[in-house]
Write a structure and sequence with these properties.
Elements lengths: L7 H9 L5 H19 L2 E4 L1 H16 L11 E5 L26 H8 L3 E6 L33 H8 L5 E6 L5 H7 L2 E4 L19 E6 L2 H11 L29 E5 L9 H16 L3 E5 L7 H16 L18 H12 L2 H14 L5 H21 L5 E5 L15 H6 L7 H4 L3 E8 L5 E7 L5 H13 L13
Parallel strand pairs: 2-3, 2-4, 7-8, 7-9
Antiparallel strand pairs: 1-3, 4-6, 5-6, 5-10, 9-11, 10-11
């Protein structure tokens, strides 16, 4: 059993065929975390006792010839923004350093009910504010392909864990690229769903109108299987859609002959790293060889996406993070003598620099004198961005674009320049304001053996088509099968 090569499909088959037990799989995963994570720092919390107990219960069911659930015995991780009953949930921020929820997020609950075993909670930029996992209040996560490079962000811990075989898959969250960009940087597959397809209940909020839940996996096929489990309406989340959930695996092997794929010219711009461009060009040819038809299209408001996204997001941040006041839950300064001091000292010590920056900018954008000039204008541009996507999807079925204009960058390289860090999301932030889904998958490597990724973007609720196209590409390539050389 080579954990680095273990996809969800292989893990399920191995358990069903009794090639290994659930306890053996979980124990091997925990041993791998113990050996590899000191140099990768993907995990904030590991749950050996509860994981081994659940694995033993799964093995008892197998011994009694009980029918296994869809994910029985499968170890997974979750970004530390998902509430997990009885397990510390920090949002990678000091202000929630000792917070232990009394309930599970809906997505966690669904995975547990399907038999999956939570192995641990992964590191990320605090509250999801970042593109490199350098803004965590606890540790910096390293890219398993090169420990001097960032794994992307904000879900860098999840992507690094999957890429290095520390868990079969990871549950993550995407507000402006937080699943797709780290999946790209770590050479794995990342799915960001249509807004409202998966419940956000129990997920610590960044921007409530932008946050979406998804998965990071070794393959598109695994992502399709998992989406069928976590998607669906939730009475605890009024933003979820009432639509019935299709069988995403059913159409996975239908091929993509005749599929119309648009190449947005605003994403293929000057300044893209030459190796990234070459890999994207080769991927386009591969899709054409598979029977797809490609054409150039335009999303004219793309240049406005970064300011519109950040103004919208940070405005929601200033509202969402107001609840962390040192009174109800989270860090409370023991030195405060009065109520106002409690607010000020708790937030000053509990929040990191990037969190403070976004709260301040968001509060400024919402203030009486600047609301119309900033927040209202950002919402108007957001509507124009959505209209761009609506128009282009009348001509094509999907869009193909780079995830990042450059390969993984060095740790510390952009940390001192917030604007440069924000620009790392230039190709990913556009789809969150529009509420449409995106799928990131590896499409090559640089000469220095760093992963390169592409993203497929579709109209709302087009996950089936996205997954079909991604699976067709992965059936003819092996980029997603490559794993970093790590001594375990």
């Amino acid at each position: 059993m080579e954990l680095s090569d273990l996809t969800l499909k292989k893990a399920r088959a191995g358990l069903e065929n009794k090639d290994f037990s659930a306890k053996e799989l979980v124990s091997a995963t925990l041993e791998r975390i113990q050996k590899l994570d000191p140099k990768i720092s993907a995990f904030l919390t590991v749950c050996p006792e509860s994981a081994l107990k659940q694995a033993a219960e799964t093995d008892e069911l197998i011994a009694r010839s009980q029918k296994l659930k869809a994910l029985s015995g499968i170890p997974f991780s979750a970004k530390d923004v998902f509430s997990t009953q009885g397990i510390k949930t920090t949002a990678a921020s000091r202000i929630l350093e000792n917070y232990i929820p009394v309930y599970d997020a809906t997505a966690i609950k669904k995975l547990r009910e399907a038999g999956a075993i939570l192995i641990g909670k992964t590191n990320h930029d605090a509250f999801g504010f970042g593109s490199s996992t350098e803004n965590s209040d606890f540790q910096v996560t390293h890219n398993p392909w090169n420990l001097n490079k960032v794994p992307g962000g904000s879900s860098g811990g999840s992507a690094a864990a999957v890429a290095s075989g520390m868990g079969v898959f990871s549950l993550a969250e995407d507000t402006g690229g937080s699943i797709r960009q780290p999946a790209c940087f770590c050479g794995v597959t990342g799915l960001k769903v249509t807004y409202g397809l998966v419940s956000r209940y129990g997920v610590i909020a960044y921007g409530s109108s932008l946050d979406t839940i998804g998965v990071i996996t070794p393959s598109v096929e695994d992502a399709a299987f998992l989406l069928g489990i976590i998607a669906g309406p939730d009475p605890l989340d009024a933003t979820t859609m009432p639509n019935p959930i299709p069988d995403y695996l059913e159409s996975l092997n239908q091929g993509i002959k005749g599929l119309r794929i648009g190449l947005p010219k605003e994403y293929f711009i000057e300044g893209i790293d030459p190796e990234v461009k070459q890999s994207l060009d080769e991927a386009v040819k591969k899709f054409e060889k598979l029977g797809a038809k490609t054409e150039s299209v335009s999303l004219p408001h793309t240049p406005d996406a970064i300011p519109a996204y950040y103004l919208s997001g940070i405005s929601e941040v200033s509202a969402n993070l107001a609840r962390y006041d040192g009174v109800r839950f989270g860090y409370s300064s023991p030195e405060a003598r009065e109520l106002e001091d409690l607010y000020l000292e708790s937030r000053a010590k509990g929040f990191g620099p990037e969190v403070k920056r976004r709260i301040m900018l968001g509060t400024y954008a919402l203030s009486a004198g600047y609301y119309d000039a900033f927040y209202k204008k950002a919402q108007q541009v957001r509507y124009l961005i959505k209209q761009d996507f609506d128009r282009v999807f009348q001509k094509v079925d999907l869009l193909l674009a780079p995830v990042s204009p450059f390969p993984p960058f060095g740790i510390g390289e952009k940390a001192e320049d917030p604007l440069q860090m924000w620009l790392a999301d230039i190709f990913t932030v556009t789809i969150n304001p529009a509420g449409v889904p995106g799928l990131a998958l590896p499409c090559g490597f640089t000469k220095n053996n760093l992963p390169i990724g592409l993203q497929l973007i579709g109209p709302q609720l087009s996950e089936g088509v996205l997954l079909k196209a991604g699976h067709a590409y992965q059936s003819q390539t092996d980029w997603h099968k490559r794993r970093p050389s790590l001594s375990a």
